């Protein structure tokens, strides 16, 4: 295991044991899905189904930290960022960046696919919508671990604890059913209703 991976793991564990914020974000009530996600799911249904036999949380090990760091770095450095408007002529299109171009959600979809191919359960990796440092909508990939929620992001090569990103977390894919849920800092959410049922 490389020295950099041990440093990353130590920083993650240290950050998650701090008293600044809880290690996990919690689901609240059902949220409406993004139209781009709905269209993506119609083309790639396997990406949007939830297998309840898969674990929702992964043990945070040095091997997992190394894998997340490697995939995040690899994808971030292999793609050229471009907006959907400039790329496809539409406001929002979720797709795999097969031509080497993509925007935030395309980066995260590719990362999740690579992590699934490496053996991680899709249920523990949720597409997530945030408001970024510029007050704009942005997509990241949340990887849920037993030590806290980790964020893979095309804006940084570092895998970060969710509260180290300075983002405002809005909603993410549900881990209970096909749909989305709003996020909260308190473990109070109880709705298991699919957002598509609303």
Descriptive account of the structure:
Helix 1 packs across helix 3 and helix 3 packs across helix 5. The chain has 5 helices and 9 strands, in the order αβααβαβαββββββ. The chain is 30% helix and 25% strand. The chain is globular, with a radius of gyration of 16 Å. The chain starts with a helix and ends in a 14-residue tail after the last strand. Strands 1-9-8-4-5-6-7 form a 7-stranded antiparallel sheet. Strands 2-3 form a two-stranded parallel sheet. With 198 residues, it is an alpha+beta fold. The longest helix has 17 residues. Strand 2, helix 4 and strand 3 form a beta-alpha-beta unit.
Q: Note the beta-strand portion.
A: 15-25%
Major β-sheet annotation: 7 strands, antiparallel
**Rg for CA atoms:** 16 Å
> What is the N-to-C order of secondary-structure elements (H for helix, E for strand)?
HEHHEHEHEEEEEE
Strand order of the largest sheet: 1-9-8-4-5-6-7
Helical region count? 5
Q: What shape does the CA trace take?
A: globular
Low-confidence segments: 190-198
Mean pLDDT: 88
Number of strands: 9
């Amino acid at each position: 295991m490389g020295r950099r991976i041990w440093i990353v793991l130590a920083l993650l564990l240290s950050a998650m044991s701090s008293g600044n914020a809880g290690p996990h974000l919690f689901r609240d009530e059902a949220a409406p899905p993004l139209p781009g996600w709905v269209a993506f799911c119609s083309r790639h249904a396997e990406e949007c189904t939830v297998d309840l036999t898969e674990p929702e949380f992964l043990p945070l090990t040095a091997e997992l930290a190394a894998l997340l760091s490697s995939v995040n770095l690899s994808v971030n450095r292999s793609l050229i960022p471009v907006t959907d408007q400039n790329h496809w002529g539409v406001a929002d299109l979720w797709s795999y960046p097969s031509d080497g171009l993509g925007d935030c959600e395309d980066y995260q979809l590719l990362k999740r696919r690579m992590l699934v191919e490496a053996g991680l359960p899709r249920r523990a990796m949720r597409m997530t919508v945030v408001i970024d440092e510029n007050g704009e909508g942005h997509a990241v990939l949340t990887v849920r671990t037993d030590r806290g929620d980790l964020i893979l992001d095309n804006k940084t090569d570092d895998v970060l604890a969710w509260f180290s990103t300075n983002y405002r977390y809005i909603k993410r894919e549900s881990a209970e059913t096909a749909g989305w849920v709003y996020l909260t800092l308190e473990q109070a959410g109880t709705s298991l209703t699919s957002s598509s049922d609303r």
